[in-house]
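User: ok so my PI wants both of these folded by tonight, can you help

Assistant: No problem, let's get them done. Here's the first:
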Amino acid sequence: MHAALLSILMIAAFLLGAGGMWLIARRRDPKKGLLMLFAAAVFLGNVLIWTV
């Protein structure tokens, strides 16, 4: 169960990062894009903490 949760978090972090960069690059909604990048960084931080 632990490995599945970490995998889901990594997939979510990747998708949030890609979506955030897409929003910023297309100048659709840069504020939401930055928030998505921040959420991806938080997810990555959580995965790093849980694996140590």
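One down. Here's the second:
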Amino acid sequence: MPAPTARSDHDVTSPNAHRLPPGQYEARGWPVLHFGHAPAVDERTQTIRGWGAVENPTAWTIAEFKQLPTTTVRSDFHCVTKWSMFDNDWFGVASRTALAALRPTAEASHVMLHGAEGYTTNVPLDAMLDDDVIFTWRRDGEDITVEHGWPLRLVLPKRYAWKSCKWVTGIEVMTADRRGFWEERGYHNDAFPETEQRYSYQE
């Protein structure tokens, strides 16, 4: 089942047109798109739990998570509803930094990201270890809004944006793949924009 769609004004004459994956257009601004309503999140009580196939299960408060080494990553961002944004500067904690703290076991192969109100999305462990994957709370020098996933969201630039979990509450390291929320509802398990892996019937 397709996700709710969002429309945004776009410029077909954009100088970035040659960078667009197939079927995408460049958005003006940052469209808001998610299932349901943005949750009421209290940064003081929110926790980020890491568990599963790890040697060091951990539960961080948001403040503790933000004390991990930080970095800035510049990357593009592609939504399955066909809009793209280019050259975003994300500030936060590299995914591989957080995973290094958890110490995945030798059997670990996948990660399930958990978000507020039961959202989940699955990602191969090696994809989470790419150097452009980041748990972020700032974009282009400003805190992201609750609608965009504050106080913490994942950005996984090489996959469609439903893999970039908003309102992260958990990092579950797994020894086998398991489909997440949209993957169980008809979206592609891999989600590569360059080959338009939008829906599960394409697998």
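The chain has three helices and eleven strands. Residues 1-11 have pLDDT under 50 and may be disordered. Good luck tonight!
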